[in-house]
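Reviewer has doubts. Consider these tokens.
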Amino acid sequence: MRKIKDLKRMERIRRIATRFRLRWLSGREVLFLARCLAVVSVVRLALTLSSYNRVRGLITRLDARHDAGIADLRRVAWGVAAAARLVPGASCLTQALAGQYLLARQGKASRISIGIERETGSELKAHAWLMSGNHIVLGGSINGFTHLVDHGS
């Protein structure tokens, strides 16, 4: 009887993993993705309940002084972008803060750049990027935007 329950549980896990394409990920990647999902969710909730400056202040308290390698940046970009697809309302700012937190936990320095889109008429459209060194980690291209401010870690 116990074997049948275990088989049913394993089949259910396999179906979930196939549905979310987790089947092709290693155990470490699945755990990292789960961590990213938790961080993006918490940052999203924190931005809803509190101010940007307060959330940023909590993240920048972490000691992040070292340069991140390209592999670390790609991993964080992948994890945060994948997790953000599952969190409703996970904006560019949410993603940038979540990525900055994940990098800072590893002691890796990064900064958030905020800009506004040029030539949008009377409507103001802001955007946030996560930068590390000269690399854009999250947020896409900065072309078409006017840089306003950088917030470092």
Residues 27-49 form the longest helix (23 residues). The radius of gyration is 18 Å. Residues 64 and 109 are 5 Å apart (CA to CA).
